[in-house]
Amino acid sequence: MKKKKHHYVFKFMFIVLLTLVCMIALKQNASFKKWFNKQVYEKNMNFAYVNTLYKKYFGSSFPFEIKDKSQTVFHEKLEYEKANLYLDGVKLTVKDHYLVPILNTGMVVFIGKKEGYGNTVIVEESNGVEVWYGNIKQIDVNIYDLKEKGEYLGEASKEIYLVFKKDGKILNYKDYI
């Protein structure tokens, strides 16, 4: 237990030190301040990537162990009958009451309606790609959920709209499905 306690003290001290260095640099260096403001206020932050890095170097983001006795039953790959270009992405023909899987590990950053796509869930993958899942009838995720590849996103009927974006640019869907 003592070793774990030191581990959390190290994490806390590292964050404090990093914060102090940033504050001093912002106060003393105009070019750093300009760069910092651009990164914080003008660019999108990829939370899934930050979470992946944090887990890699510091372990779990929770200071306690979560014991979940349930196991994921749903772990599927995307299956569709036909793909056609649609607006900024692709329209996939699927079976009625199709259970939609997450294509790659990422964080849910938007749930709502998008014009032309209906009920939409946007998942920001750890590689920086935003995936829009449109025409989802029953959404079974929450905002800021971190979902693993193959986990259940929701249910769609007969068609799903997918859009792939990175840094605001539309990507070719064929590279991702």
* Integer tally of domains: 2
CATH architecture assignment name of the largest domain: Distorted Sandwich
Q: What percentage of amino acids are in beta strands?
A: 25-35%
Helix content: 25-40%
Specify the biggest β-sheet.
9 strands, antiparallel
Structural class, by secondary structure, is: alpha+beta
Compressed to H and E, one letter per element, the order equals HHHEEEEEEEEE
Q: Report the mean per-residue pLDDT as an integer.
A: 82
The overall strand count is 9
Low-pLDDT stretches are none
Shape: elongated
Cα gyration radius (Å): 20 Å
Walk me through the structure.
The termini are far apart. This protein has helices at residues 2-28, 30-42, 47-58, and strands spanning 82-86, 89-93, 98-101, 106-114, 118-125, 130-139, 146-147, 152-166, 169-170. The mean pLDDT is 82. The protein has two domains: 2-43; 82-175, Distorted Sandwich (Glucose Permease (Domain IIA)), CATH 2.70.70. Helix 1 packs across helix 2. It is of the alpha+beta class and 177 residues long.
